[in-house]
């Protein structure tokens, strides 16, 4: 078998997101059918999703707590040992291409200003600025938080959000109050297996809406947002802090590699039985026999395989 599976983030879906995932999978599958590498396939698929502006990655990335900054994370890897990751990088259009460029150097992981400087050095394209959708999402989330705060009846602070920080940015007023679970986080990613038997993964995200500057989610954390090996690959999407706390991708990978679960059953078990239902999370996975996908919330995805 060879093929590709793509996701467009957990926590919501739409005909636009489904269509974007379908198109991204087709782009990757076309490369695989022509004998191309799984790395080229997943990069092309994720770059398409980054460029579409319809997902929280690349062009469509959400805004941080200051209401104007975009910071993005991305990872690329293959089962032959290639690896590159960038985190909290600003101003560039395609973090996935930056992670790829990095993999050809002696450095494996770059963050912040250093990552941006490397992107300039590589001549990568600048980010075009927040999309109208990203600005609207930030305004909606801000209104939602303010409304919940004023309601004063909700008691759970969502992981990764700090009331003091939200007050600092004027998102909620100072004083007593409580927040609730409402997150604005999704991610894009692709896993591929080529005709040469090599697996590859690529993941990219704008992080989580209205999070503090410098916050990094699960995507670049091995064992949390991704796991890759000779068994296959796993990618997570959803609330980064919860995925890191429970090492989501590693749990799915262990079920496949050590317990003999099919990818579909492994994704379902971890998404539905390990994570609490109020924490949005989803997984895609692939081994040499097939693909899996499951989430405890709506998640856009698409896969294509062939013998
Ligand atoms: N899952 C994306 C993030 O939390 O950053």
Entry summary:
The protein is an alpha+beta fold. It has 9 helices and 11 strands. A hairpin with a 4-residue loop joins strand 9 (281-286) and strand 10 (291-295).
Describe what you observe in this structure.
With 307 residues, the chain is an alpha+beta fold. The protein has helices at 15-33, 38-52, 95-103, 112-122, 132-151, 163-168, 240-246, 248-257, 263-274, and strands at 2-10, 72-78, 83-89, 109-111, 185-193, 199-208, 226-229, 232-238, 281-286, 291-295, 299-306. Mean pLDDT is 90; it is low at 153-157 and 176-183. The protein has a domain at 2-61 and 77-82 and 185-306: 4-Layer Sandwich (Glutamine Phosphoribosylpyrophosphate, subunit 1, domain 1), CATH 3.60.20. Glycine (GLY) is lined by residues 185, 187, 205, 207-208, 217-219, 237-238, 240.
Shape: globular
**Sheet bearing the most strands, described?**
7 strands, mixed
Radius of gyration: 18 Å
- N-to-C CA distance: 4 Å
> Treating each run of at least 4 consecutive H or I residues as one helix, how many helices?
9
Q: How large is the share of residues in beta strands? A: 15-25%
Keywords:
single chain; 307 residues; alpha+beta; Glutamine Phosphoribosylpyrophosphate, subunit 1, domain 1; 7-stranded mixed β-sheet; 4-stranded antiparallel β-sheet; 9 helices; 11 strands; globular; binds glycine
């Amino acid at each position: 078998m060879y093929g590709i599976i793509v996701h467009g983030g957990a926590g919501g879906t739409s005909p636009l997101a489904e269509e974007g995932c379908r198109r991204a999978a087709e782009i990757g599958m076309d490369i695989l059918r022509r004998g191309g590498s799984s790395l080229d396939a997943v990069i092309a698929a994720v770059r398409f999703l980054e460029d579409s502006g319809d997902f929280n990655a690349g062009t469509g990335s959400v805004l941080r707590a200051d209401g104007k900054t975009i910071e993005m994370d991305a990872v690329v890897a293959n089962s032959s040992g290639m690896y590159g990751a960038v985190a909290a990088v600003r101003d560039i259009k395609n973090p996935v291409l930056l992670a790829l460029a990095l993999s050809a150097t002696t450095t494996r992981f770059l963050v912040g200003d250093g990552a941006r400087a490397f992107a300039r050095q590589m001549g990568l394209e600048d980010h075009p600025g927040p999309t109208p959708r990203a600005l609207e999402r930030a305004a909606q989330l801000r209104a939602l938080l303010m409304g919940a705060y004023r309601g004063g009846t909700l008691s759970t602070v969502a992981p990764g959000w700090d009331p003091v920080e939200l007050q600092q940015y004027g998102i909620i007023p100072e004083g007593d109050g409580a927040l609730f679970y409402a997150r604005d986080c999704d991610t894009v990613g692709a896993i591929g297996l080529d005709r040469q038997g090599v697996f590859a993964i690529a993941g990219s995200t704008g992080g989580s809406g209205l999070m503090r500057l410098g916050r990094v989610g699960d995507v670049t954390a091995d064992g949390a947002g991704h796991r890759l090996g000779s068994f296959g690959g796993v990618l997570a999407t959803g609330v980064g802090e919860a995925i890191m706390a429970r090492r989501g991708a590693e749990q799915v990978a262990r079920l496949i590699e050590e317990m003999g679960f099919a990818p579909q059953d492994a994704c379902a078990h971890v998404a539905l039985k390990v994570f609490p239902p109020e924490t949005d999370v989803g997984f895609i996975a692939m081994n040499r026999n097939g693909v899996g996908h499951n989430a405890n919330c709506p998640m856009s995805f698409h896969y294509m395989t062939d013998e």
